[in-house]
Design brief:
The protein is 75% helix and 0% strand. It is an all-alpha fold and 105 residues long. The protein contains three helices and no strands.
């Protein structure tokens, strides 16, 4: 009787271990199936990104912008005078460091 109980316990543990192994293998197989699908989606997104980048460059082309400026709906736009242009410094961190050094004095 005790031997039969131990045998059933061992069979149950073995069955549980096999079930866990098969479950893990199934989840791994599911991920392997999803990888090509996600790779295709990524490739499509990259191609769309390249296409949109090309469209932006084509639109921002100076020749295209000059053609747009000649259209009647943009006739009210004028080129600015040289004294109306404001130049921004590319590195404002130097100004912050100078200001903080003056404030410390």
């Amino acid at each position: 009787m005790f031997f039969l109980l131990r045998l059933l316990l061992c069979v149950a543990i073995l069955g549980g271990a096999l079930f866990a192994y098969i479950e893990r293998h199934n989840s791994l197989t599911e991920l392997r199936i999803r990888v090509p699908i996600l790779t295709k989606k990524l490739k499509d997104l990259q191609e769309e990104n390249i296409r949109l980048h090309y469209e932006i460059e084509k639109f921002e082309n100076p020749l295209n912008l000059m053609e747009l400026a000649r259209k009647p709906q943009y006739a009210y736009l004028k080129h600015p005078y040289a004294h109306d242009i404001i130049h921004l410094f590319p590195n404002p961190t130097n100004e912050i460091a100078e200001y903080s050094a003056k404030a410390a004095e």
